[in-house]
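User: Okay, second chain of the day. Same drill as before: sequence in, structure tokens out.
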Amino acid sequence: MSPPLNHEISDQKRSGITLLLAVISCFTVMNIYYNQPLLALITRNFGVSTTTASIVPAMTQLGFGLGIILFVPLGDIIDRRPLILGKLLLVAVFLVLVGLAPNLPTLAVLSFLLGLFTVIPQIAIPFAAQLARPAQRGRTIGIVMSGIFAGILLSRALSGALGQWLGWRAIFMAAAGAMLILAGVVARFLPHSGRSTELRYGQILASLPGILRRERTIQAACITGALLFCTFSIFWSTLAFVLAAAPFHDGPWVAGILGLVGITGSAAAPLVGRLADHKGAAFTLGIAIGIAALSAVVLAAFGNTMWGLILSLILLDLGVQAGLVSNQTRIYSVLPPAYNSRVNTIFMSCYFTGGAAGSILGGLAWHHWKSHTALGVLSLSLMIAALILHKWLERGKIQPPAPAHNAMPDPDAEIQPVPTR
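Assistant: Same drill. Structure tokens below.
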């Protein structure tokens, strides 16, 4: 087994690696979300309905969810640096193929494959959690999550604005070039993480259901996270259609500009992480769900005005970002660092399944009602359910400070690793 990343490294180097992981996460996660502001252009290009076109972001997120299950656990058994580098090269290939897609079915399949390999941010997060000192885990995760949310929102700004003038295909071609540049940066500057366990790949996958079954904190994070991201996807997968309809009659570039407004939410991630370190992640999660619920109320009541859309967007991004940082701070405190990739696999696969469901639900709701009120009511219903489940799952549950890693139970102790030759 390779030695893990040295925890005795200087704080300056630790901060530099954390920042690099945030940059890697920012630029790679963008590939998942380029297609959402471009849906109106894709719809016109292929002559399909809005409901049919909504399958593209749904397939991307489903691929991403499956990629998390298949590839993120590898971070516990092989070095994460070559894992990230290899994925970057594969993503560059599929971005080019997406940009060349001749029809919608091909685009949907290629979008699924693009999502399947664009799991690099979910490899970076456990890397950061492994790197962090226990008392600063929330802050460290918050920094990386800031990169992820900035990437999500910047991707919409770039694809919405540039897609209006260059066409939707050019966006994916340019993104492929960016991945090749990023691969060079990773090869030059990202350190090795080492291996965390001697278990084989099949044993790692087989251990996932048992972890989820035993750990109530992870169960709660999966449920609330999926509902939050479902709401997030409902808003963003339908925004291009809302803006194209009355009273706005705007193109995808406006959706891109609104994406820049949402960056205010990503800026709050480190603050949420610090608050979670001091007040407890369950506390900040309840606040996050409440903010997302308020966003849904604003969308339902005032989504036919630009100021209403902007306010709803800011509240939604802030609430979902705070919820994600809170949940990830919680799940990494449950088990030792050797489980970081597996814990992230369980949580994020549920999270992006919720996102895929939101893309489909949003497309169906817009197809049937073409109403911002319907979208807001649907989102509010999901947030009420998330708040009820959060309170119920936390009832009577004691939240002690996270124990030292060497005092944590080791479920893998019952699994005998296969000797390596």
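The longest helix spans residues 137-166.

User: Thanks, on to the next one.
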